[in-house]
Amino acid sequence: MVTITDKAKHRIEQIMQEESYDANYFVRVAVESGGCSGLSYKLNFDNEEKKGDQFCEDKGVKICLDIKSYLYLAGTELDYSDGLGGKGFEFHNPNASRTCACGESFSV
Hints:
This protein is α+β, with helices and mostly antiparallel strands. It has helices at residues 6-18, 67-73, and strands at 3-4, 26-33, 39-46, 54-58, 61-65, 77-83, 86-92, 98-99, 105-107. The strands form 2 sheets. It has a 6-stranded mixed β-sheet with strand order 4-5-2-3-9-8. A 3-stranded mixed β-sheet has the order 1-6-7.
C-alpha cells in the first residue's frame, strides 16, 4: 500500500481541479528503468484501469500501481514539498537501498 501526506493530498486535489479531472480519475504511481540509481518514479493521473492494476486508497485519494511497481513501492509514502529546496512530489520508499541526490531515482 502507498500512503500520502496531507500536503500531497492537497496538491493532488488542486491538480485535479485545475485540470478538470472528475471522480473517475486516480493517481497512477509507477516505477520504470532509468535515472542515476537505476529505477525512477513516475506519477500521473489516469482514468483507465489496466490488467493487473492494484488499487489502494488513502485520505480519500485513489492510488493505482501496476503489479511490478507494487513490489517496489509497498509501504512508500508520497509527500509534496513546496519549500526552497524545490517543489514537487517526493517518495519516501522504505524498500530503496540507495537513492540519488535529487531523489528521483533509487535502487533496491
